[in-house]
């Protein structure tokens, strides 16, 4: 599977002809932006992945769109979005999976997880499924939560301050993502992106 | 009762079974042994009509050509297969399910009271608590419970030909004895024929068998009686097969 | 055994045009909407001035509001062709002989008693259930529970009625709420006094007059502090209705520490647009449960919602949608967390078969001031064949920082291996698929009152017989 890092653009229109892992790392220093990825699977037997990772800085305002279109049979796609939100940050995510009537035996999954690290944040999530073929498997999940209280307590009881504990939990959140990435190049890029 | 001739079975263009000949008469118990990947489950599933397999040759049951019938029709003739991998079917209550199975396989209807009594007899044989009836089919069941649930269905359907695909794997010795008790019950009450697929000979301590067949790489390599099974177990498959060549 | 082909049922309903119509002359202004028609409705019910004015204002709002464009097409609705003013005497002109055979057959198969059949088929104006009903009435009277028609409540319980009516769903809410506000007729008024527990479910169709069955039904329910009760609306047997548009409004108030469950089974005939606005306002530690089964109608748009306005409030929505033959079930739920420490749960299951389309549309909103809120949404769709489809459109708007919101949705087909397993046990393909579909919706069916659950299962069996295998 080839790895492609999506950068320097707002809109990406992708029609891969081989198995591809697309990685999008949101600029941690940016005040926000609108990013749209249109991924169309037009060839049979393709396996693709799309991963968005973002540490959303304080007061930033983001609009993210992923549009996965399955137009040919026997393809799989895994779309994942992992975000952590600082104070007063805003994000509006629209994640669409469309499976055409011709795209039998498609498997498409969308997973979105947001970790709320700050106060006064806004998170809007619209994962949608439009399924027109019955021989498919498709699912999506979206969840949003604060760092786990028990984990924070545990770390604080070992001497960390609240902020240090929160940072550690945030790191654990992203490490969890890293663990699931097998593609070496992608792992390296993500590791470089995450704070140490 | 069951005559398999020249059976060839392939999956996804890969050939798994080659020129299988096997016959089982009424009230006979046959054992099919072989290593993992030999094709034992494939044979079992093909007799039952799993649509994923491409089957050539002949399978005649009581003068019916099984290859012309779908799984439901084969079940209607009195064939039962206990699956090696048992699926969970959420939302389906066991009591309702068993009642439906009984209705499908028996001419005579039973009143709810009589059915409950019929069921209790079978559940006692398997040491099943009445509480099981309210649970959903196979959901949250341990490996052993799933196997016993397959046997309970067998006891409700009262089939003529019973194919047991590794019913004993994952069971402790007490459970194996319980399962054997159920099989012997049907052998006595209904003169059912059995095709027992297994890895281990422990269950053979509790059931009388007529013939043993050794399957290796899709072909039947040896036929014999109970002592054949013991021989293979003591020598090991590899050694035994080497001897055959 | 008689075979009923349910696919033809929709056509049979269109045969209504072939029914023998009464000799009675129909006054021309009976069709279409106008201030005069609305005035006539109000006059015939002898309503107080405030209600007449409310209706007229609502009519103006209806004219101004636009049709919703975000959902299924409603282009076929012709407001001018609808009769908004119906009298009881108009109803009992049809005879049992006029009822299509398929409908009668379905009643037989479901074991519906004759009296009930006539009522459901629109042949009898009132469901005659004096015996069953009067004993329940006695218990209710003793407890101080009010359960009567909206018209009666407006006359006998003015103060209570006016205090709550249209405060949760104003006419401005949406075009169909405005239409209902202008032309409403029939529906139930329920008041459960403080700390009163009503054990037996209150059933709506004992009360409803067939003529007003559904078209612009308006229901108002108040469960006062500490009370608990259950209300069941509709029935599983196919309901034949002359009216092509049903725009109902249901307002439920669940006061502090009260508990209320509103169950609906809708199986309207296939010519109907079923557009419903249902909303509950839940106060401190109150619990509101919506249980919804949508099987019939041509197009259904229904999104029961809960406004969780005080701490500890809990809202739940369990829904099943079964879409066949070009039906569109566009359903979902809205949970608005407007106070801290509130929680909600939505479980929606849908089945699409023979060209049906089922859509989930939901909203979970957590306000900025609402901290520590929890919400869980699960929607699963089962598509049974190539002609059918499903869409899921959830929306989660989270302002509160301390919210924990999860949403999961999946779309699947019936697995081959499960079919094979069940068929190998002697079930034919239809039976196996029916069992798997029944198992799929079971977690919700088991929340319905027993007789509804049984009927619903039997109905699904019948439906599947006609469309599968």
Largest sheet of chain B: 6 strands, mixed
* Rg value of chain C: 22 Å
Unreliable sequence segments of chain C = 1-29, 88-93, 124-132, 206-214
Which stretches of chain B are low in confidence, meaning pLDDT under 50 for 5 or more residues running? none
Major sheet description of chain C:
10 strands, mixed
Mean pLDDT of chain B: 88
Q: What is the succession of H and E elements of chain B?
A: EEEHEEHEHHHEHEEEHH
Just give the CATH class of chain B: Alpha Beta
* Total beta strands of chain B: 10
- Give the helix level of chain C as a range of percent: 25-40%
Please state the second-level CATH architecture of chain B.
3-Layer(aba) Sandwich
- Count of discrete domains of chain B: 1
How do the strands of the widest beta sheet of chain B line up side by side? 6-7-8-3-9-10
Kindly give the count of domains of chain C: 2
Query: Structural class given helices, strands, pairing of chain B?
Result: alpha/beta
* Proportion in β-strands of chain B: 25-35%
Description:
The complex is a heterotrimer of chains A (196), B (245) and C (469). Chain A has one domain (2-147). Chain A has three helices and eleven strands, in the order E-E-E-E-E-E-E-E-E-E-E-H-H-H. Chain A has helices spanning 149-156, 162-180, 184-193; strands at 2-5, 11-14, 20-25, 32-41, 47-56, 61-70, 76-85, 90-99, 107-116, 122-131, 137-145. The mean pLDDT of chain A is 91. Chain B is α/β, with parallel strands linked by helices. The longest helix of chain B has 18 residues, at 173-190. Chain C is an alpha/beta fold and 469 residues long. Chain C is built from 13 helices and 18 strands. In chain C, strands 1, 2, 4, 6, 8, 10, 11, 13, 15 and 17 form a ten-stranded mixed sheet that branches. Chain C has an eight-stranded parallel sheet with strand order 3-5-7-9-12-14-16-18, with helices on one face. In chain C, helix 2 packs antiparallel against helix 3 (49-64), helix 3 packs antiparallel against helix 10 and helix 12 (429-445) packs antiparallel against helix 13 (450-467). The B-C interface holds B 48-52, 70-72, 74-76, 80-81, 83, 87, 89-93, 97, 100-101, 104-105, 136-137, 153, 157 and C 416-418, 420-429, 431-432, 435-436, 438-443. Strand 11 of chain A pairs antiparallel with strand 18 (404-412) of chain C.
């Amino acid at each position: 599977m080839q790895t492609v890092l999506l950068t320097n653009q707002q809109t990406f229109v992708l029609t891969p002809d081989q198995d591809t892992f697309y990685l999008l790392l949101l600029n941690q220093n940016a005040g926000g932006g609108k990013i749209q990825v249109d991924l169309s699977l037009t060839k049979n037997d393709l396996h693709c992945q799309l991963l968005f990772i973002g540490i959303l800085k304080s007061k930033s305002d983001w609009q993210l769109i992923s549009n996965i279109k399955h137009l040919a049979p026997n393809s799989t796609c895994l779309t994942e979005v992992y975000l952590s939100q600082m104070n007063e940050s805003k994000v509006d995510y629209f994640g669409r999976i469309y499976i055409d009537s011709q795209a039998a035996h498609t498997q498409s999954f969308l997973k979105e997880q947001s970790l709320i690290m700050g106060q006064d944040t806004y998170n809007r999530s619209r994962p949608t499924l439009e399924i027109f073929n019955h021989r498919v498997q498709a699912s999506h999940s979206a969840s949003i939560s604060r760092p786990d209280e028990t984990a924070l307590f545990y770390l604080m009881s070992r001497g960390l301050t609240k902020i240090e504990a929160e940072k550690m939990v945030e790191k654990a959140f992203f490490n969890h993502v890293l663990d699931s990435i097998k593609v070496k190049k992608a792992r390296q890029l993500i590791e470089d992106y995450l704070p140490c | 009762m069951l005559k398999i001739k020249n059976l060839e079975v392939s999956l996804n263009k890969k050939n798994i079974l080659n020129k299988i000949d096997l016959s089982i008469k009424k009230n006979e118990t046959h054992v099919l042994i072989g290593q993992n990947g030999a094709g034992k489950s494939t044979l079992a599933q093909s007799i039952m009509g799993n649509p994923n397999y491409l089957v050539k040759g002949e399978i005649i049951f009581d003068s019916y050509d099984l290859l012309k019938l779908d799984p439901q029709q084969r079940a209607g003739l009195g064939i039962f297969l206990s699956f090696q991998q048992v699926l969970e079917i959420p939302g389906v209550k066991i009591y309702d399910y068993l009642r439906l199975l009984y209705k499908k396989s028996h001419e005579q209807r039973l009143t709810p009271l009589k059915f409950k009594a019929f069921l209790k007899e079978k559940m006692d044989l398997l040491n099943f608590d009445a509480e099981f009836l309210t649970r959903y089919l196979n959901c949250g069941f341990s490996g052993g419970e799933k196997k016993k649930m397959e046997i309970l269905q067998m006891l409700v359907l009262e089939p003529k030909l019973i194919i047991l695909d590794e019913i004993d794997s994952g069971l402790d010795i007490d459970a194996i004895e319980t399962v054997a008790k159920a099989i012997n019950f049907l052998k006595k009450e209904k003169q059912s024929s059995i095709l027992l697929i297994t890895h281990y000979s422990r269950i053979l301590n509790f059931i009388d068998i007529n013939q043993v067949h050794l399957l290796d790489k899709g072909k039947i390599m040896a036929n014999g009686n109970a002592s054949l099974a013991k021989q293979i177990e003591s020598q090991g498959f590899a050694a035994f097969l080497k001897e055959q060549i | 055994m008689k075979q009923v082909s349910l696919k033809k049922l929709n056509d049979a309903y269109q045969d209504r045009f072939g029914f023998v119509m009464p000799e009675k002359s129909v006054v021309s202004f009976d069709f279409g909407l106008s201030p005069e028609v609305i005035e006539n409705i109000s006059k015939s019910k002898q309503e107080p001035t405030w209600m007449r004015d409310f209706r007229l204002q609502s009519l103006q709002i209806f004219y101004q509001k636009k049709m919703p464009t975000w959902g299924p097409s409603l282009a076929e609705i012709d407001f001018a062709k609808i009769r908004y003013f119906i009298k009881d005497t108009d109803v009992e002109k049809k005879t049992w002989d006029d009822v299509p055979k398929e409908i009668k057959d379905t009643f037989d198969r479901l074991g519906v008693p004759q009296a009930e059949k006539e009522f459901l088929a629109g042949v009898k104006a009132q469901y005659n259930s004096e015996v069953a009903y009067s004993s329940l009435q006695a218990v209710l009277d003793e407890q101080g529970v009010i359960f009567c028609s909206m018209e009666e409540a407006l006359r006998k319980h003015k103060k209570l009625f006016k205090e709550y009516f249209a405060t949760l769903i104003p006419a401005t809410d949406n075009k169909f709420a405005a239409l209902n506000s202008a032309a409403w007729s029939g529906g139930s008024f329920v008041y459960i006094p403080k700390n009163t527990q009503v054990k037996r479910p209150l059933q709506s169709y004992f009360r409803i007059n067939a003529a007003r069955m559904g078209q612009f039904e308006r229901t108002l329910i108040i469960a006062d502090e500490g009370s608990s009760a259950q209300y069941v609306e509709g029935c599983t047997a196919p309901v034949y209705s002359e009216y092509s548009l049903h725009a109902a409004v249901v307002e439920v108030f669940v006061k502090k520490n009260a508990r209320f469950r509103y169950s609906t089974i809708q199986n309207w005939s296939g010519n109907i647009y079923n557009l419903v606005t249902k909303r509950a306002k839940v106060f401190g530690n109150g619990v509101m449960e919506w249980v919804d089964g949508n099987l019939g109608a041509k197009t259904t748009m229904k999104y029961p919602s809960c406004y969780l306005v005080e701490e500890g409030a809990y809202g739940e929505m369990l829904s099943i949608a079964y879409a066949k033959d070009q039906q569109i079930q566009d359903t979902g739920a809205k949970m608005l967390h407007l106070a801290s420490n509130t929680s909600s749960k939505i479980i929606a299951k849908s089945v699409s078969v023979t060209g049906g389309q089922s859509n989930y549309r939901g909203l979970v909103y957590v306000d900025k001031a609402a901290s520590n809120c929890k919400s869980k949404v699960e929607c699963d769709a089962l598509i049974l064949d190539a002609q059918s489809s499903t869409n899921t459109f959830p929306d989660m708007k989270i302002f509160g920082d301390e919210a924990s919101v999860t949403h999961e949705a999946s779309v699947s087909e019936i697995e081959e291996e499960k079919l094979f397993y069940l068929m190998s046990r002697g079930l034919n393909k239809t039976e196996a698929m029916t069992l798997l579909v029944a198992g799929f919706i079971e977690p919700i069916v088991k929340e319905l009152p027993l007789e509804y659950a049984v009927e619903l299962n039997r109905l699904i069996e019948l439906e599947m017989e006609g469309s599968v295998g």
